[in-house]
Amino acid sequence: MKMICCIPVLALILFGEMVEGTCNSNLGSSLLGDLIGMVLKLKGSDNGCCCLNKKTTPAFSAILTKVQSLGVKDTIKFDKVVTNIQNGYNPSSGIFTAPMAGVYQLSTTVMSHKGQKLVVHLWYNDVKMSGGWGLGNQHVQATINMVLELQKGDQVTIKSRESNNVYSDDDNYTCFSGYLIAQ
């Protein structure tokens, strides 16, 4: 995949050499033709481009629009999807499923109900990875940020540790987001 990103640079070097006259023009034309053929083959292959772009880079962001009552280890279902490139996030289940392998940045911010304790964890497949805790006389927010290397089909979700309420309203205090940062 690194070679794909280097091809434009190689083409420019080859073209520059041809313009300066330091290459045999027949050899330069042959090499340029071979280079173009290789690019076309790679473009048509399943490898695709190694560059991340907004059409192919998995990314999602979803918010909770109302209070959600949770039992022990219940998944928070962030019901309003804002972004869902590659359709990795399912609002019905609250689960993000990695559409491709890579390194992902994942984060959540959750708000406790006024005066109530809230403890949540980010789960990677069936493994509890990190937690957030909030308790106070007012609404309190907890945030979790993780960078995880995921395989295609791995799942990430936000679950409660115990029975409690997650607060949100039309000001969107509670959210879950993630995106691919490297392949």
Automatic annotation (TrEMBL):
Its main location: secreted. Residues 1-21 form the signal peptide. It comes from the Eukaryota. It comes from Mytilus galloprovincialis (Mediterranean mussel). Pfam families: C1q. It is found in: Secreted. SMART domains: C1Q. The gene is MgC1q88. The keyword Secreted applies. Keywords: Secreted, Signal. GO terms for cellular component: extracellular region. SUPFAM superfamilies: TNF-like. Residues 53-183 form the C1q domain. This is Putative C1q domain containing protein MgC1q88. InterPro entries: C1q_dom, Cerebellin_Synaptic_Org, Tumour_necrosis_fac-like_dom. PANTHER family: C1Q DOMAIN-CONTAINING PROTEIN, CEREBELLIN-RELATED.
